[in-house]
Amino acid sequence: MQMRGLTMQSWVIWRRILVITFTDTFPKLLYFC
């Protein structure tokens, strides 16, 4: 149960990092195009 909670927490963190990087690089890609 504890391992499952840790994996769920890390998934939320990674998802947040991906969203932040995507929203940060997407406008730059639009500017380059």
Give descriptors for this structure.
33 residues; 0% strand; single chain; 1 helix; mainly alpha; 94% helix
Provide a descriptive summary of the structure in words.
By secondary structure, the chain is mostly helical. It has one domain (1-33). 94% of the residues lie in helices and 0% in strands. The protein contains one helix and no strands. The chain has one helix at 2-32. The radius of gyration is 14 Å and the shape is rod-shaped. The chain starts with a helix and ends with a helix.
Individual helix count: 1
Mean model confidence by pLDDT: 86
Please mark out the parts with pLDDT under 50 across 5 or more consecutive residues, or reply none.
Answer: none
Distance between the termini: 47 Å
> How many domain regions?
1
Helix content: over 70%
Query: What structural class do helix, strand and pairing data support?
Result: mainly alpha
Biggest β-sheet: count, sense, barrel?
A: none
How does the SSE layout of this entry go?
Blueprint: H1 2-32
Short summary:
By secondary structure, the protein is mostly helical. The protein has one helix at residues 2-32.
